[in-house]
Amino acid sequence: MQRKKEIYGLIGFPLGHSFSQTYFNQKFESEGIDASYENFEIEDIGELMEIFAEFPELCGLNVTIPYKQQVIPYMNEMDETAAKIGAVNVIKIIRKKDGDFKLKGYNSDIIGFSDSIAPLLKPHHQKALVLGTGGASKAIMLGLKNLGLEPVLVSRTAREGVLTYADLDKAVMDTHTVIVNTTPVGMYPNVDDCPDIPYNLLTDRHLCYDLIYNPDVTAFMRKSQEAGAEVKNGLEMLLLQAFASWQIWNS
Ligand code: NAP
């Protein structure tokens, strides 16, 4: 690695090709910023502190699967929203003069999601279904609540306070006019798969948002669009969360 003045990076496992690395290195190149963005593929979160020791130029980190929750015990401070969500995908490294540093955890997924869905919301969008109950769903639930909606989780497993796919009858579908897919169902290469919702009950009052961005148009989006719903994929969310990460590191 050619050492630059500043280093930013992503921790996760496995990483392979990462959107963030391409996005930030293109940004640094086009804006003449003396920095590089590196992928740190670590097999265990215990390796996190070794990265800080090896790279004193490190200014900020993004965090992806499976470490968004596991990094929390390493944070000296948590942003209020990240603490409420219980997931960190941005770490700001606050360095002191004596070489010591502090870590503060943030969540930019909620910013990316909220900023990208807000312009599409209409007065009749009062209630929402959030498909999937994994890491991403927590940021989406809080984002929708902050935007004034009443979201409910939909899971394959029945439990208190959560709907199952079998519960999605006409009454539920008529009132819940925003549907957000936070499951990985339909992601490349499984492009013909889609969440098991009654697409025939969708109307032109529905807004169907998929966190997936590869493929551009998922089967969930295609079937929703065919039923008259407005659709959006997760690309803008991805771009906006990266933009928000940069603002956090430089604030
Ligand atoms: P995750 O934790 O692996 O899974 C999310 C949830 O989806 C699971 O908890 C599960 O909920 C449900 N699920 C998993 N496999 C399923 C299946 N075969 N059928 C039906 N439901 C299934 O993933 P995540 O970290 O929350 O991320 C979810 C998706 O969001 C991924 O595709 C990720 O790439 C995307 N994402 C996009 C952005 C962006 O910026 N656009 C940001 C973050 C995440 P139940 O067991 O309760 O059904």
Please describe the topology of this protein.
Layout: E1 6-12, H1 19-31, E2 35-41, H2 48-54, E3 58-63, E4 77-78, H3 80-85, E5 90-95, E6 101-106, H4 109-117, E7 127-131, H5 135-146, E8 150-155, E9 162-164, H6 170-175, E10 176-181, E11 207-210, H7 219-226, E12 230-232, H8 235-249
Parallel strand pairs: 1-2, 1-3, 4-6, 7-8, 7-10, 8-9, 10-11, 11-12
Antiparallel strand pairs: 3-5, 5-6
Bound molecules: NADP nicotinamide-adenine-dinucleotide phosphate.
NADP nicotinamide-adenine-dinucleotide phosphate is lined by residues 65, 109, 112, 132-137, 155-157, 182-185, 187, 211-213, 234, 237-238, 241.
Structural description of this entry:
The protein has 251 residues and is of the alpha/beta class. The model has no long low-confidence stretch (mean pLDDT 95). The chain starts with 5 loop residues before the first strand and ends with a helix. The chain is elongated. The protein has helices at residues 19-31, 48-54, 80-85, 109-117, 135-146, 170-175, 219-226, 235-249; strands at 6-12, 35-41, 58-63, 77-78, 90-95, 101-106, 127-131, 150-155, 162-164, 176-181, 207-210, 230-232. It has two domains: 6-107, Rossmann fold; 110-234, NAD(P)-binding Rossmann-like Domain (Rossmann fold). It has eight helices and twelve strands. Strands 2-1-3-5-6-4 form a six-stranded mixed beta sheet, with helices on both faces. The protein has a six-stranded parallel beta sheet with strand order 9-8-7-10-11-12, with helices on both faces. The relative contact order is 0.12. The structure holds NADP nicotinamide-adenine-dinucleotide phosphate. Residues 65, 109, 112, 132-137, 155-157, 182-185, 187, 211-213, 234, 237-238, 241 line the site of NADP nicotinamide-adenine-dinucleotide phosphate.
